[in-house]
Design brief:
By secondary structure, this protein is of the alpha/beta class. Helices cover 51% and strands 23% of the residues. The chain has a five-stranded mixed β-sheet with strand order 3-2-1-4-5. It is found in: Cytoplasm. It catalyses: Endonucleolytic cleavage at a junction such as a reciprocal single-stranded crossover between two homologous DNA duplexes (Holliday junction).
Length: 183
């Protein structure tokens, strides 16, 4: 499975692609889309949209992962980040990719083992987990961390879904009436 992680931002949008075979994670590519700040907001969002479309075309991921945005102390910043995130979501949806969303806490816990880890810790663990020669840039590291998080969590989520399906299926074959099971 090939996973594209995206760390959206209105100034810098990170992306990272990994491949998963069993429990082995392999680095494929990463980078940062630098968005010009001297153009209008719609043009900035188009830069994110177009560049992520290109990343998807070039690396052909099977799924994507992105951090869920929460309201921070500055509502205007949160709104702008949400718009950058929307452009990224549109690029991924336009290319037919499923998008899996994770909280910052889930991502850090999955990669570092601690939900309150510092950015530097995330960068170092991404380097170690993917056996990289150097520490990745912050935006790329965050995107790779999203992809790693999905690689770690998706098998568990799939197993839970299978168990829930099996439980629902077995209930469907058995009728319960007045507290008694009927075959």
């Amino acid at each position: 499975m090939r996973i594209l992680g995206v760390d959206p931002g209105l100034r810098r949008t990170g992306f990272g692609v990994i491949e998963v075979r069993g429990s082995k994670l392999t680095y494929v590519a990463s980078g940062t889309i630098v968005v010009p700040t001297d153009v209008t907001l719609p043009l900035r969002l188009k830069v994110i949209l177009d560049n992520l479309r290109e990343v998807v075309e070039q690396h052909q991921p099977d799924v994507s992962a992105m951090e869920i945005v929460f309201m921070n102390t500055n509502p205007a910043s949160t709104l702008l980040l949400g718009q950058a995130r929307g452009a990224a979501l549109c690029a991924l949806a336009d290319r037919g990719l499923a998008v899996h969303e994770y909280t910052a806490l889930q991502i850090k816990k999955s990669v570092v083992g601690a939900g309150r880890a510092a950015k530097e810790q995330v960068q170092m663990m991404v380097q170690r987990l993917l056996n990289l020669d150097g520490i990745p840039a912050p935006d790329s590291a965050d995107a790779l961390a999203c992809a790693i998080c999905h690689a770690h969590i998706s098998p568990i989520s799939e197993k839970i879904a299978e168990l829930n399906y099996a439980a629902r299926s077995s209930r469907g074959r058995t009728k319960v009436r007045a507290g008694r099971m009927l075959g």
